Amino acid sequence: MQIARTTLPGVLVVEPDVHRDPRGFLFESYHRQRYVDAGIPDVFVQDNHSCSCSGTLRGLHLQRTKPQAKLVRTIRGEIFDVAVDVRVGSPTFGQWVAELLSADNFRQLYIPAGFAHGLCVLSDEAQLHYKCSNFYDADDELSIAYDDPDIGIEWPVPDPLLSERDRNGQRLRDALDLLPRHDP
Question: Of 19, 125, 132, 134, which has fewest CB within 10 angstroms of its CB?
Answer without folding.
Answer: 19
